[in-house]
Amino acid sequence: MQVEKIPQEFMVALPLLQQIRAAGFEAYFVGGSVRDTILGLPIHDVDIATSAYPAEIKAIFERTVDTGIEHGTVMVLDHGEGYEITTFRTESGYQDFRRPDKVEFVRSLKEDLKRRDLTINALALAPDGTVIDMFSGLDDLENKTIRAVGDPTERFFEDALRMMRTVRFASQLDFKIEPQTLQAIKANAHLLEKIAVERIQVEWIKLLLGKNVVQGLDAFLETKLYKYCPQFATREQALRKIAKLPQLKLADELECWALLAYVFELTPKQVRSFLKAWKTSNEISTEVQNVLSILEQATSDLDPLVCYHAKERATKAASHLLDILQLPLTGAKLLQTYTALPIKDKAQLALNGKDLLQTLGLKPGPGLGKILNTLEQKVVLGELANDKTVLLAQAEKLSKELN
Ligand code: ATP
Ligand code: MG
Questions:
Q1: Residue 203 needs a FRET pair 20 to 30 A away by CA distance; which of 146, 279, 300, 327 works?
Q2: Torsion sign, CA atoms 362, 365, 369, 371
Q3: Exposed e or buried b per residue across 106-131, where buried means at least 16 C-beta atoms within 10 angstroms of its C-beta
């Protein structure tokens, strides 16, 4: 097969491939970007594979960085861009179900493609646009099939993460998992226990953001992979409930975690420990709690203070989830409430602590904070205009009441 129109991302890297070839070696584009090019999807990372050894790559190019030299990867700097060039390699050992004990550099493209996970990810693209397909990946792309390269059981024994990648691609690309590959996951799902949570998390989020989430989730549940993910083992029913949501189209990681926390009915404390177990960032954990604070009060007369305190990002996520979950409050109504807030942040209040100290001669302390909070709340609720004179007058009244 010939790729008719080589994407721009490849075009800019072509001179590098040609330079490697001029030095007498082979060089190809490989991996996900080749798959996505053939599918007509946008590409994100350009991976280059070569028969040249790392030292040979370093001799060809003037500016290189050893980004992963032990795995055969050298970064070549060109016109302010960095390109990762990786030597063809074979992997062996895999005693821990996740990493090869031994990596060996080889001169054969076929050997390199053979160690890749799925046939659709084992394609190479030559500079002239020819696709090199040694494991019928093109047929599988055509038939929308996810199939392990070689014997699936063996491949999942080598690296158990590949099972998660398989269900992720079923969702992301809306492809069916080939029966033997699916069977091998069912038989070996427990091996996922050996894999670092961070790596599982990446695949899990890509699954939830995919084109056919229901298909990915069904495979994730049917194969029992979920049992070996943090805090999922006893939550099959709740996960099934997610797969049944009619308009399940999530926009980002925050929406994914917030939906899970909501469906699992987690308390704020449980949210923290759940997300900690999944090793998400603290920022996501805080935002998820903000989203939940809105969802929990999703009646038709939402208190504007709730979305004021949740802030913009969480409000947007909540508005999307309200519609997905079909709660009484609509997403549009929530956004309307948020947009109508007179101020979105304390910093927008027409008066600050310094003003109170200077103009009213108040002393620093809890009383001052109390006054500011009251003013903030009244402005958010539209009970006071966000005007300095109005706020000062109100502050004076409040300070007298406090004394
Ligand atoms: P994405 O579009 O999400 O980046 P990808 O297939 O490009 O998907 P990467 O993690 O970028 O995924 O990996 C690049 C390539 O490396 C893959 O296409 C595949 O050929 C190979 N690969 C990645 N992970 C594995 C693995 N666990 N086992 C075997 N090969 C892998
Ligand atoms: Mg990639």
A1: 327
A2: negative
A3: beebeebbebbbbbbbbbbbbbeeeb
Token pair recorded at residue 177? 């998992």
Contacts of 142 (CB under 8 A, 6+ apart): none
Looking at the DSSP bridge assignments, the partners of residue 33 are: none
Tell me how far apart the alpha carbons of residues 343 and 359 are, in angstroms, rounded to a whole number: 23
Contact yes or no for 69/88 (Cβ under 8 A): no
116 labelled ligand-binding: yes
3-state secondary structure at position 302? coil
The CA-CA-CA angle for residues 167, 171, 173, to 5°, reads 110
**Residue type, position 262, single letter:** Y
| pLDDT tens figures, 67-77 | 888 889 999 99
Q: What is the DSSP letter of 105?
A: E
* Tens of pLDDT, residues 315-359: 999 999 999 999 999 999 999 999 999 999 999 999 988 888 888
3 state DSSP class of 117 = coil
Is the Cβ–Cβ distance between 132 and 109 less than 8 Å?
A: yes
The sign one gets for the Cα dihedral 116, 119, 120, 124 is positive
**Ligand 1, residues 165, 198, 209, 211: which to mutate, most atoms within 8 A of Cβ?**
165
One DSSP character per residue, 76-99 reads EEETTEEEEEEE-EEEE--TTSSS
What pLDDT was estimated at residue 259? Answer: 98
Alpha carbons 38 and 51: distance in angstroms, whole number: 24
**272 in a known ligand binding site:** no
Using CA atoms, how far apart are residues 223 and 70, in angstroms rounded to an integer? Answer: 35
pTM for the predicted model, two decimal places = 0.93
For helices 304-325 and 331-339, give the axis angle rounded to 10 degrees.
160
Spacing, Cα 338 to ligand 2 middle (Å): 38
Judge whether 14 and 29 are in contact, CB under 8 Å: no
Q: What is the spatial distance between Cα 250 and Cα 257, in angstroms, rounded to a whole number? A: 10
Residues within a 6 A CB radius of ligand 1: 31-32, 45, 47, 116-117, 121-122, 159, 161-162
Cα atoms in the Cβ-side hemisphere of radius 13 Å centred on 202: 9
Residue 101: predicted pLDDT: 80
SS3 285: helix
Measured distance CA(98)–CA(19) in Å, rounded: 35
